Amino acid sequence: MSTEEENKASIAFEIEFEKNPNAPIPEHYKKRLEEESQKSLNDEELRTKLKTKLKAAEERKKKAEDEKAAKAAQEVAHAKKVAEEQRRLSDAQKTENLAKLQENLVNAEARREGAQKEKLEKIAKHHDDVNNISKK
């Protein structure tokens, strides 16, 4: 039996063994368990070892699922934290941009008033010059 076939048979047997603990144990399973124990095992010892191995595998699976769920929860918490930080920075930047726009508006208004005052002064000077020329 090839390794892939043994793996498929092992999975099928493990499922069957969980449902029916009295299911016959395949030879490759017996051989593997005896090699691990380094001794010949009777049927009861084989079944006990199998139950122990299946329980350990189930615990590893549950632990892996718990770790995966915890990691997902951490990622969600981190994503929320990053989103909140980006929103906060965005709000701060909007406030800063608004302040700059208001400052630019004030500066533009001051320049407009200055230009208008300068224009009125030029008109007044021109008017005075015209009056001075007409008086002569």
Q: Can you offer a commentary on this structure?
A:
- This protein has 136 residues and is mainly alpha-helical.
- It has a domain at 42-135.
- Helices cover 89% and strands 0% of the residues.
- It has 3 helices and no strands.
- The chain is rod-shaped and about 135 Å long.
- The N and C termini lie far apart (127 Å).
- The mean pLDDT is 85.
For this entry, give a set of tags:
0% strand; single chain; 136 residues; mainly alpha
Strand content: under 5%
Main sheet specs: none
The SSE string, one letter per element, is: HHH
> What is the mean predicted local confidence, pLDDT?
85
Counting DSSP H or I runs of 4 or more residues, the number of helices is 3
Please state the CA-atom Rg, rounded to the nearest Å. 44 Å
Instruction: Provide the helix percentage.
Output: over 70%
Report how far apart the termini are: 127 Å
Q: What shape does the CA trace take?
A: rod-shaped
Structural class determined from secondary elements = mainly alpha
Strand tally is 0
Return residue spans where pLDDT drops below 50 for at least 5 consecutive residues.
none
Show the helix and strand layout:
Layout (H helix, E strand, L loop, with lengths): L2 H17 L7 H11 L5 H93 L1
Brief synopsis:
The protein has 136 residues and is an all-alpha fold.
